[in-house]
Amino acid sequence: LLHHGMLLVGLPYSESALTETRGGGTPYGASHHAGADGSRPLDQHESTLCRALGKRVGTVTRQLLAGAAHVQS
Fold it and tell me: Within 10 A of 56 (CB to CB), how many other CB atoms are there?
């Protein structure tokens, strides 16, 4: 999909939860390992990384839309 213009938006190491999490989350994005039976809930670090990634995707989207509007005018 990269050749169609897809962007990869990951998590920078400046997100401290990325280095503190024990259950999920990588520079490529938020993740969660619930265990073999699916019973392990999200921990605080994983929730923090989910919110950080959502904010980052929103920021990139706004920047892309602003750039597209600038090009059209």
Answer: 16
